[in-house]
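Exam revision sheet. Question 4 asks you to relate a sequence to its structure. Input first:
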Amino acid sequence: MSRIDELAHRYGDHIGAPWQQGLPAANRVVMLVYEKELERQLRGKLGEFEQRTKAAGHGWQLVDLTTAFADWMAVMKYRDSYFNGPEKIRLKLDKAFLQHVSDLTKAQLEQGGDNDVVAVLGAGSLFGFLRLSDVIKDIERDIQGRLVVFFPGQKDGNNYRLLDARDGWNYMAVGITRHPTGAVA
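Answer key, structure tokens:
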């Protein structure tokens, strides 16, 4: 069984269990943590996660953030000046780009219900532009069912590190790895 198959199996076990109602938003977030070098394999087997979700009787909505930055920059009026002086864009990233990514995700959350999964793919593409923790914090109140984040990085307890590079953040999401202990080796 491949490493992604192991992760899909553990995810299927979790998502197939009865969902507790009335949980705080942070506990309705599921972080699927995998080694960053498995990103292409995960994308190739994404349908396996959707199938396991639907087999458990839940709906599936996908948000792919892979091109979110490029799409956002493409419509920026002053994008050329940002390429000439990248330090000028920092303020826009922290506010306008965060809003853009949050809006993309909220649009799918609004389409789903309390029995649906909204899956977020492409979290790694936010690296260097936004903190994923800021996005999740911004959309938490809109989560009705479960928000499943495909997370290329590491998990140590409740601490998550995107792409193994940035200081992690402590978050109370349900973390699923391919290892029963929750570690990603």
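Marking note for examiners. Residues 3-176 form one domain.
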